[in-house]
Design a protein that fits this description.
By secondary structure, the chain is of the alpha/beta class. It has two domains: 3-65 and 224-247, no CATH class; 72-209, 3-Layer(aba) Sandwich (Rossmann fold). The chain has helices at 3-13, 17-31, 35-52, 55-65, 72-75, 102-118, 136-147, 162-173, 190-200, 226-247; strands spanning 80-84, 88-92, 97-100, 122-125, 154-156, 180-186, 203-209. The two termini are 19 Å apart.
């Protein structure tokens, strides 16, 4: 199924769109004289949106996804480092090109550090989902060389999903016998990424970074906020992706 379709379905199901659509349905039912059903749906939708917007909810859901940091001894057994793309800032005016976004830079920073510390070659992976002038892979390779002084040996730039990242990366690394890899991505994305990279044939050492659930709990975590909604949505997006990949034979 094309990414545009799966992304659209997820957008409609996840908050805020999902609860808002249920709220609209409740209002329609109430208007059509089905008052009890309409009010019930309205209360459910409002409650779902409220709970989804709590920082405490987002933190809890992200914690369930994020694995512990990688052990140095396990990382040292890898034959290559694979860094997954996040997204790009398209036509960034100050750079006059497509560049890696903040989340992608977090992954690149850790990948570059591991490459120097472990003396392992880097593969960067990511195509051009939703267009753009330069692929995620090319943008990542440029950032590694220019900003982190750590060149990428391989660039995978044809994929548009994590599953395609895995399959195309395997096609690049298998001929060199580099099957055991340190996989770098955000901690909340690692579980889904590890599923499809293992399915593709890799022996994966998880190297998570960019932990989103860290930090002290605050009273404000119990008040709805845009950041709380974003955290919840990020976690639910991953759980949907994991379920989808498992339905398709991963894990």
């Amino acid at each position: 199924m094309p990414r545009e379709v799966t992304d659209l379905v997820a957008q409609l199901v996840l908050p805020p769109a999902g609860p808002l659509l249920v709220l609209a349905l409740g209002a329609l039912l109430a208007w059509r004289k089905r008052r009890t059903a309409g009010i019930t749906l309205g209360v459910v939708a409002f409650s779902a949106l409220w709970i989804s917007s709590l920082g405490a909810t987002g933190r809890y859901l992200l914690e369930q996804l994020e694995p512990p940091p990688a052990a140095e001894s396990a990382l040292a057994t890898g034959k290559a480092i694979v860094v997954l793309g996040a997204s790009r800032v398209q036509a960034s005016p100050e750079y006059s090109d497509d560049v890696v976004n903040g989340e992608g830079l977090v992954r690149l920073r850790y990948g570059a550090r591991l490459a120097r510390r472990l003396d392992l070659p880097l593969l960067v992976a990511g195509g051009k989902p939703y267009g753009g002038a330069r692929s995620e892979g090319r943008a990542m390779a440029a950032a590694l060389a220019e900003d982190f002084k750590t060149p990428a040996r391989w660039i995978e730039e044809q994929s548009s999903t994590t599953a395609e990242n895995a399959a195309r990366s395997f096609a690049i690394l298998r001929p060199e016998g580099r099957i055991r890899i340190a996989l770098v991505t955000c901690a909340w994305h690692m579980r889904r990424a590890q599923l499809v990279f293992a399915k593709a044939g890799f022996d994966v050492v998880a190297a998570p970074t960019g932990y989103a659930s860290r930090g002290e709990a605050r009273a404000l975590d119990w008040i709805p906020s845009a950041s709380g909604l974003y955290a919840t949505r990020t976690a639910l997006w991953e759980w949907l992706g994991i379920a989808w990949y498992r339905l398709n034979g991963a894990g």
